[in-house]
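Quick one:
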Amino acid sequence: MEDTTLDQPTERFVFGGRRCRVIDLSRKLSNTGAENEPNPHRIDYVDHETSALAIGAKLDSVGLWKDDRGGAQETVELTTHSGTHVDAPYHYGPLSGGEPARRVDALPLRWCMGNGVLLDFTHKGVGEGIEAADVRSALDAIDYELAPFDIVLIRTDASRGYGEPGYTLRQPGLRRSGTELLVEAGVRMIGIDAWGLDRPFDVMVAEGRAGDTAQFWESHYFGQEQEYAQIEQLANLDQIPVSHGFTVIALPILLDGASAAWSRVVAIVDED
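Output:
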């Protein structure tokens, strides 16, 4: 029997003729903790009875709904950078490599579906940087050589604090050199289980005020030189049982001309 338990990060079922473990890498967007989000969001819920009255008044259908219950619905107010989302090159600046930067609706599907590579940086402290040398060491540790269109996932475990006060300032982040190494190897999608790909803003601001402005938002700004996309606010990276040999699917919603869009991201691990 297929395991399709709701509200669990992992399900097992047969897909494409093979038995798979499918791991939900997405953050659930909720009103709980929304007051601690830099990008505000709000979900308003309309129940079945209220819906029947509201829709009934518009469609002259009051009294026709079974048990006076219509279809439940929600109104959501949020930004394209709320919750688990994919940033397109346009987020980093208007140009990338001297050409108009791609927006989220122009991202190739090839970038969004690929072989997953999980790099463990949970030993890095809050505010620390992940340099090219760190990336090379992590790849050596799992005996893996990057290939074009690999989707690299940066595990920090900062996701365990999502929604808590100050959680956006509690992760290590990729330095420019680490991002450059990945992109020059052909990686076009980089994901992280934290609020942002770079180091926390309080760290970058302090260094910038002290005179080192080159490091400010450096991984994002690298996208102005070479195209790549990134997934922010991933979750459950600790549930992936292997460092490579799995598939990642991260398809952003098609929003016209947007810098980012929400995505339900999953990892698929073959179990046959």
